[in-house]
Amino acid sequence: MGLVRLVFICCFVFVYGENKHDGSIKHDDPMLNTETPNYKEYCVIGAGPGGLQIAYFLENAGRDYLVFEKDHMAGSFFQKYPIHRRLLSINKIFTGKTNKEFNMRHDWNSLISNDDSLKFGKYSKEFYPNADSLLEYLNDYATKLNLKVQYNSTMHDILKRKDGLFQMWDQHNNAYTCKYMIVATGVSEPIAPKFAGDHLIEGYENLSTNLSDYKGQSVFIFGRGNAANDVANFINGVTAVVHMLGRSPTRLA
């Protein structure tokens, strides 16, 4: 049997919420300009690393805020991604230095806090750690720092009212209003370029993690970001050749 050429679109996928409601709430209702249901000064959408980090600063500043997370845990993106479970963010614990700022530059996973127990190096010693360690870390970060996170809340139809406030609804049509809206949901949908034969592409979100499926294959990867390198690193030992194509040269942090 000849070599089979596989083509992948490599990107992270994270869809936060659907943009719809049941029609019982009218977006042009003038009452939207006078009522402030479930008001918070700051609304943060998403309890991933970005959402938790801004929540920490809001908590320390004594601000009125709430983080909305669609899943039952913080960092839910990392339950599935990266699909091969090995992070590409380094966890260099032993730098030979005592300077905290220098050491933090070699720690790509820890969030900023005033709690020294919340350093990622206490959760994993691996240079390229497992994604499950990051999940554990993020949920401990949210719990130990008493961050205000409302789980199982899928928000949709975010709009800015005439009075300058933001309003949105959850999956139960409960309305929320806030003065400042911070969206920390990451990439919202797959990046899929259109060209002849694109129906043959297999997306990163659906790739097999069984190495035997790639033995002796010539593999062409569209993209040179984290997801693309995740796939290339995983299959490189069993493939005949791996080609990677990107719109620009690879940029490292």
TrEMBL record:
GO terms for molecular function: flavin adenine dinucleotide binding; monooxygenase activity. SUPFAM superfamilies: FAD/NAD(P)-binding domain (SSF51905). Gene3D superfamilies: FAD/NAD(P)-binding domain. Keywords: Oxidoreductase, Signal. The keyword Isomerase does not apply. Residues 1-17 form the signal peptide. One of its GO terms (biological process) is ERAD pathway. GO terms for cellular component: endoplasmic reticulum lumen. This is FAD/NAD(P)-binding domain-containing protein.
